[in-house]
Amino acid sequence: MPLTEIDVEHLYEKDIDLKKEDVCNLLKWKEKQLHLPVVTELQLALFLHSCHYSTEKAKRTIDMYFTIKTMSPQIFGNRLPSNPMVQAAINCVLFIPLPDLTPEGDLILFVKMMDTDPENYHYGTQINCFDMITLLHLHQHGPAKGVIIVFDMKGFAFGHFLKVNVAYMKTFLYYLQEGMPIRFKSIQFFNIVPFMDKVLALMKPFMEREVAESLVMHTKIESLYKYVPQKILPEEYGGSSDTLEILHEKYRAQMNENEDFFKFQESQIVDESKRLDKENYVGDIFGVNGTFKKLQVD
């Protein structure tokens, strides 16, 4: 079934701290930001929730969200499911929000290699697919209290690691921390690979300290249950959710049936020629002078 967005009025009723008045004030602010694209009320509500109802933080996050995506088309462009590269990425890796929340109200984003051949793995497109399915779920179901990424690393080989683009990782981790409209909580890894130290060495320099501390390695799956109850995991892990194969088919269907949603998202780009406050944004992304296109990675 194609996307039916959650009614934003339902979000206001469900979350007493999410105020329509604050979202309307964000909309008035947005109308003065001539460089920003058309933004829906639902999108603004999702940003405000992700920023714990701080309108000032939401303003920065909104601008970061659209700026990062506009300046990184090599990652966030070509967003249509009909794109052959997106189709190949969908077939390669499972990204799926599990249907049940944790007792704390956290959403679990489950990640698993489905095609273990490194030749079929394209890191930039996988980032794009992760973002696409997460935002689709947000617009369908509304925000969760927190988001936990659970990564089963079985099948992730050193050949996959060698295809990780460092500049893309830096951009993605910056986006995850500064622009994505979710309350990121942690990343949980299990079925740890022997070269995990190299994976962490690549990630941690681009993370704020509290985010780096949220990375949790599980040598046994049982320790994962402290964060994610077994019963909400896929069937293969002793949970009550669907099998990995069924979840993968659902993931594929959700992506393929919502091309119009992704087409609209792809149209939401920043026009830098209309930005009024160039000093504070274009010159300060990533904390370096210049834009993403000028980014140098050591």
Poorly predicted ranges: 287-298
Count, helices: 14
Number of strands: 5
Strand line-up across the major sheet: 1-2-3-4-5
Instruction: Please state the CA-atom Rg, rounded to the nearest Å.
Output: 19 Å
Order of helices and strands: HHHHHHEEHEHHEHHEHHH
Note the gap between the termini.
45 Å
Mean pLDDT: 92
Largest sheet: 5 strands, mixed
Q: How large is the share of residues in beta strands?
A: 5-15%
Shape: globular
Percent in helix: 40-55%
Structural class per helix/strand content? alpha/beta
GO molecular function, one term: phosphatidylinositol bisphosphate binding
Protein name: CRAL-TRIO domain-containing protein
Organism: Phaedon cochleariae (Mustard beetle)
InterPro entries: CRAL-TRIO_dom, CRAL-TRIO_dom_sf, CRAL/TRIO_N_dom_sf
Question: Could you explain how this protein is built, in words?
Answer:
Helix content is 45%, strand content 10%. It has 298 residues and is of the alpha/beta class. Strands 1-2-3-4-5 form a 5-stranded mixed β-sheet, sandwiched between helices. Strand 2 (106-113), helix 7 and strand 3 (146-152) form a beta-alpha-beta unit. The longest helix has 19 residues, at 123-141. The chain is globular.
Secondary-structure blueprint of this entry?
Elements: H1 8-14, H2 20-31, H3 41-50, H4 55-71, H5 73-76, H6 84-92, E1 93-97, E2 106-113, H7 123-141, E3 146-152, H8 158-161, H9 166-178, E4 184-190, H10 196-203, H11 209-212, E5 215-218, H12 244-256, H13 259-267, H14 278-281
Parallel strand pairs: 2-3, 3-4, 4-5
Antiparallel strand pairs: 1-2
Helix pairs in contact: 2-3, 3-4, 6-7
